[in-house]
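Attaching the record inline, Q. Sequence:
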Amino acid sequence: MNWYFDTSVLVAVAVKGHVHYSRATAILEELVTRKHHGFMSAHGLAEVYSVLTRTPFSPPVYPSEAWQIIEQDFLPYMEIVSLSAKEYREAVKDCATRGLAGGPVYDPLHLCCARKAACDRIYTFDVRDFRGLAQAGWADKICAP
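Structure, as predicted:
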């Protein structure tokens, strides 16, 4: 199976004190042990790094630590999906048509990447938001770990 991981899940895996750490870690372990194919987006890579290095976690996650987490815990198990310039244009145009503004604009980009990778499941802790943005037939694929 192809599984897509949203930033919210990856950040939870990376921070032991995170409220969703156990659930997120369990699903990542299942990905690895059951040999499913994992995916994350190229912009999600930057998003994870940004969240890890700017959120006031205790203890803080420093830039070199954030990269080490990404490099060791995610990249060996996940393929990075990138959108083309045309796909970005279409996704942002769709956001404008829907009246989306600010941070929620990134969620449709995650969904575009999951669709491009033909993912069977999309893991996020923002299930309601993602389902509200999903195209027909995709809402059932979206779940929390």
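Helices lie at 7-14, 21-33, 42-54, 63-74, 85-98, 106-116, 127-133. The beta strands are 2-5, 37-41, 78-81, 121-123, 142-143.

More tomorrow.
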